[in-house]
Amino acid sequence: MIDTRSTLSDPKALRAEIRAGRFDGPTAGQGGDALQANLVILPQADAQDFLRFCQANPRPCPLLAVGEPGNPALPTLGDIDLRHDVPRYRLWRDGTLVAEPTDIADLWRDDMVSFALGCSFSFEDALTRAGIPVRHQLAGRNVPMYRTNLPTRAAGMFSGPVVVSMRPMPAADAIEAVAICQRFPLAHGAPVHLGDPSQIGIADIDRPDYGDAPDIRPGDIPVFWACGVTPQAAIDAARPALAITHAPGHMLVTDIPSGQAERCLTGVHPG
Amino acid sequence: MIDTRSTLSDPKALRAEIRAGRFDGPTAGQGGDALQANLVILPQADAQDFLRFCQANPRPCPLLAVGEPGNPALPTLGDIDLRHDVPRYRLWRDGTLVAEPTDIADLWRDDMVSFALGCSFSFEDALTRAGIPVRHQLAGRNVPMYRTNLPTRAAGMFSGPVVVSMRPMPAADAIEAVAICQRFPLAHGAPVHLGDPSQIGIADIDRPDYGDAPDIRPGDIPVFWACGVTPQAAIDAARPALAITHAPGHMLVTDIPSGQAERCLTGVHPG
């Protein structure tokens, strides 16, 4: 019954609608140019390990902000209340998905620590602006993602392989994409591999482990980026007693312009 | 009889030795960290076209400095007298190599225009410092170079294919190399291609058109940069009545630190 079809280009107005329970849809195309983030919330006991895991694996797990224990605000990203401000959450108990609520006020505890992680939206926009075709977007598909034989650096209970997303493109575009994406360290940065998929343990490029099959054109080479599914997979494997994440595609929308993600770290951001 | 074996780490002292006729060897490893340059000297009538050719093809022909007609100085690069300061020159008449003098004072004319063009030394140093193997250097060979089917943009009498140099390396190093080399626009910048050589018209990677055969290791991919042989090839084909260049490997050594090539353009450089 909730209208999720209209577009709100102002991130503050969008979050107000989400907070009021009037918007619970996917956030792609919403909030104008504002940076969107993956969300992970863990009790403090497990959050310590997860923070170390992110610090040790910045390509798949670029940390935009970490909340104070028990505090649902992320002030460097905007006037955010994480109990209400994500359109749809996922609740995990012992590694099992048990609910997809639109509000977690009743689940919030005073030992909860929240993590906002960068996502690929920023660099895909930059690629498109540079005239590089983002084939899964043009085909109306989800990006293909693969488990690799590249290991993350383990931290306590969290470990596992790097998961990568793949975007096929001509070699000259791949070179330009590297040059562009290294400017977005908080959106997974430069690719981690390109060319032969078997070199990183991918047996069949046409059968991704997550997302949709790729649209590979003649002359394309596959280009692989570290992917935000990596921390999700590490959490799945670690099976913490309690974890809350955003539901796929239902991201945390911040006040930071997407081209200025480093403002998350410097604290200089538009009021 | 001239001692070319000693190493002079100060570019001014090195040029003084060259100017005095006491050094006529290759400049690799000489002049410390100073930027080295390709040299082209043409009569003004042809120089006009060549200047436009370089401007239109900055990847293969990165212009560091252009001399005033008739003036053998390049003041933005150092206290240089091009009649004496290159250890060995090549003299071309109607496109044919006719001499390899160590001094061109007797050939200098008041309509001569000189061009200093960036070379690959700067970025190869940066790759090595980044831990990326530069295989032809490690093997003691010359870099392999290939004519491609990529066209330059023609300017007057100057045209022809882009010539590329190739450095094989693992894919992860290739990604890092792109990120590094795009910071060196005056040393050919980012690669122009990687992966399948046939996509740019190279039939047999093991048989380069110039330089030595490549040392390609298992897991390497070929990475291709626009090469300073491109303008040489364009001059060869155009067959100007008169041209003077450096002899291969016998470069113009400037006073600019190799990591600061942009100082050539801004004019801010150490006295």
UniProtKB/TrEMBL annotation, chains A, B:
Broad class of enzyme this protein falls into: lyase
InterPro entries reported for this sequence: D-Glu_cyclase, Putative_hydro-lyase, UPF0317
Name the UniProt record assigns to this protein: Putative hydro-lyase CLG85_000815
Keyword ATP-binding: no
Alphabetized PANTHER family for the sequence: D-GLUTAMATE CYCLASE, MITOCHONDRIAL
Family named by the database record: Belongs to the D-glutamate cyclase family.
Pfam families: D-Glu_cyclase (PF07286)
Keywords tagged on the record: Lyase
EC number assigned by the record: 4.2.1.-
Superkingdom of this protein's organism: Bacteria
GO MF annotations in UniProt: lyase activity
